[in-house]
Every structure is written in structure tokens, then in C-alpha cells.
Amino acid sequence: GNSVTQMEGPVTLSEEAFLTINCTYTATGYPSLFWYVQYPGEGLQLLLKATKADDKGSNKGFEATYRKETTSFHLEKGSVQVSDSAVYFCALKTGGGADGLTFGKGTHLIIQP
Amino acid sequence: SAVISQKPSRDICQRGTSLTIQCQVDSQVTMMFWYRQQPGQSLTLIATANQGSEATYESGFVIDKFPISRPNLTFSTLTVSNMSPEDSSIYLCSVELAGETQYFGPGTRLLVL
Questions:
Q1: Cβ contacts (< 8 Å) between B102 and chain A: which residues?
Q2: CA dihedral for B51, B54, B59, B61, sign (positive or negative)
Q3: A85 - beta bridge partners?
Q4: HEC states along A26-94?
Q5: A51 and B99: CB-CB below 8 Å?
Q6: Between chains, do A49 and B101 touch, taking CB under 8 Å as contact?
Q7: pLDDT tens digits, residue range B2-54?
Q8: pLDDT for position A94
Q9: Contact between chains at B99 and A49 (C-beta distance less than 8 A)
């Protein structure tokens, strides 16, 4: 079956630090990969996605590259801000429209000023 | 994207009772999904709801416990039946739009006493 493994938090960084949140996956077929973010008190929002190998998703200064050879989709940001404090979920989807998403456990990111 | 609303936003219920959660989307969509997010955990897919057919349930979830309706292309309900404290979770609906991207409602926070 499908599974997503991501580093568990909380991850605490200082403002302007470099961020990496690791995500690896196991899937049948060729999945699409996603990062979702859940800010405090808010709903789940799509942050970025990639649908095929070597694609790079990017949004709000965050990037992630679909690495088929290492089955990874690590999230990176060059300089984090306090406003980036949130829970980040890596997820994948295989098959057609009838398939739901498989989520990782989430990484709680805390950025200190 | 899509605008998705859920009712109620939160509720406190007594064990043995049932709660029906409504999900409304502002455009017609084929597939709607229901997820559960238990406290401090990731999201787990409960079922996929396709208009005009029976919902498809994931392993560990059954129709008697989580009956779903999908009367039209913009609306769905999830009922949590005969509740126990273990059902205390956030329940989220989502819809899939073009590009295999799922968008989530704000969630219904349920506490069972």
C-alpha cells in the first residue's frame, strides 16, 4: 500500500534560518506529491505540488522537488519567517479521481524571532 | 480553487448519540472525500463519495458507523453514529478539482463525552 514518512517535530528554528523538512514515500505506480500546511486555528491549505519525476513545486518561497530515484519530496525554504510557524503535511495520491490522499504524520514547525 | 463550508464547525456530544456533518461546495464536483484527523495525528481517509452511487469506504471504516449521503454535485453529509469518546476528532471534507488537487473544508471539531 501507499505510505508517507516525514520527519516528526516539533522543529524549532530561528527567523531567517534555512528549512528542510524531509518526506519520503512508498507508492504503487507513479504518485502525485503534495505539501499541505495548517496554520494555527486554520484549515488545511495546499502549499505546493508536483505530478511527475523531477518536477519542482514552489509557492511562498517554499520549494520541493519530486525525486523518483530516492522516492523523496523534501520541503525547503531559504529564509523562514515567524509567520511560517505551522504544521506541514506531505501527501501523495495515486490512480485516478477516485483515490484519496495518503498523508504523513505532519511536522510542527516553530519559528522563533 | 473552491470554497467549501462545513456545518457545524464544532460540537460536543454525548456518547451513544449521532451527529451529521454537512459539507457544501460552491461549484459542481464529481468526487468528494471525508477525512478524520484524530488529536495530534495526521489525516486518514474515511470514504470517497461519488454522486449517484454508494460511498467507497477505506479499510477500518464501515457504512453503519459512518453513513454518507451525496444527493447532488455540491453537497454531502457524513454521520458519525453511536458515538464514543474515541470518535473525538476533526472531520474534514475535501473536493478534487483539475490537476488532482484536493481542497479542504475548514473541518468540524467533535468532542464526545
A1: 46, 93, 100-101
A2: positive
A3: none
A4: ECCCCCEEEEEEECCCCCEEEEEEECCCCCEEEECCEEEECECCCCECCEEECCCCHHHCEEEEEEEEC
A5: yes
A6: yes
A7: 899 999 999 999 999 999 999 999 999 988 999 999 988 889 999 999 888 88
A8: 87
A9: yes
